[in-house]
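Regression test case RT-17, inverse folding.

Input:
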């Protein structure tokens, strides 16, 4: 059980946004299912649907939305069905991997959140505009699922690497821009989905476009993300070993005790801090001492 919990905590400690997003979506889905099963013993009706509708679903009519503004974020982490969740997470994994490797974990989180919020606002705006002419308003009054946020990630990847190819179904190579446009156009079979996905696509494209001009719309999200990460990663405690060295043991190059003491191994807090730095800035950002500590940690025999 402890190992299972560690496997869940590690992505949050090390800043792997892609795995974090997939875990959060999965945990929310399982939590709602479990809650629904438990509450069915104490009440009647479809409890899980009521929980989602009352607290997680994005409601488009403005008079209802203003009383539940938090749903602008919760809807893009919540799913009704397992298959909806599975498709979104697979798509997020494929395209999110490209985005994370190309511009980093922090930017991937920005795109996902901005995509969900922007698409939600666009949907609310269009719905309420169409409600002025009820005879042509045939879109749903609510939205649920990560599709819009995932679509933002998809089109961010397309904007970054339009010529990149996936080995599709293990049969043939196809450029990701064709995959993205195919799924976007296909989604308009259901107008509500098409509008939501289009909002996400515009958000993903706009984020990369502005980022190339030096404008990062996700700076506030990164600040909040740093605070969230700190909750999962304990601050390393400074330990000053009481060792005595003769002057002859100190080299002119000023090497640290990681070079001098063959019995020294960094503790887990130090290793986590180094791995977190690699995740944010790359291996080359490490100091010589940090590289030595990482090497020593890899040589530890449990």
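Golden output:
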């Amino acid at each position: 059980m402890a190992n299972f919990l560690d496997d869940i905590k590690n992505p949050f400690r090390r800043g792997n946004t892609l795995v974090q997003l997939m875990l959060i979506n999965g945990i929310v889905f399982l939590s709602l299912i479990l809650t629904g099963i438990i509450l069915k013993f104490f009440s009647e009706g479809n409890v899980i649907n009521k929980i989602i509708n009352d607290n997680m679903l994005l409601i488009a009519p403005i008079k209802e939305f203003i009383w539940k503004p938090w749903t602008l974020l919760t809807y893009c982490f919540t799913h009704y069905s397992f298959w909806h969740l599975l498709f979104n997470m697979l798509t997020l994994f494929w395209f999110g991997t490209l985005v994370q490797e190309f511009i980093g974990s922090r930017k991937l989180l920005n795109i996902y959140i901005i995509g969900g919020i922007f698409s939600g606002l666009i949907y609310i705006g269009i719905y309420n505009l169409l409600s002025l002419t009820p005879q042509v308003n045939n879109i749903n009054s609510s939205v649920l699922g990560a599709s819009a946020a995932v679509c933002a990630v998809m089109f961010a990847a397309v904007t970054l690497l339009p010529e990149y190819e996936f080995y599709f179904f293990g049969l043939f190579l196809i450029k990701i821009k064709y995959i993205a446009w195919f799924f976007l156009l296909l989604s308009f079979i259901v107008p509500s989905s098409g509008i939501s996905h289009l909002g996400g696509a515009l958000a993903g494209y706009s984020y990369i476009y502005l980022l190339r001009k030096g404008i990062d719309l996700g700076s506030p999200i990164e600040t909040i993300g740093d605070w969230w990460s700190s909750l999962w990663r304990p601050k390393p405690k400074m330990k000053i070993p009481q060792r005595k060295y003769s002057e002859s043991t100190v080299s002119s190059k000023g090497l640290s005790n990681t070079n001098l003491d063959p019995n020294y191994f960094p503790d887990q807090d130090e290793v986590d801090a180094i791995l977190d730095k690699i995740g944010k800035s790359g291996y080359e950002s490490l100091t010589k001492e940090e590289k030595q500590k990482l090497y020593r940690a890899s040589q530890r025999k449990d």
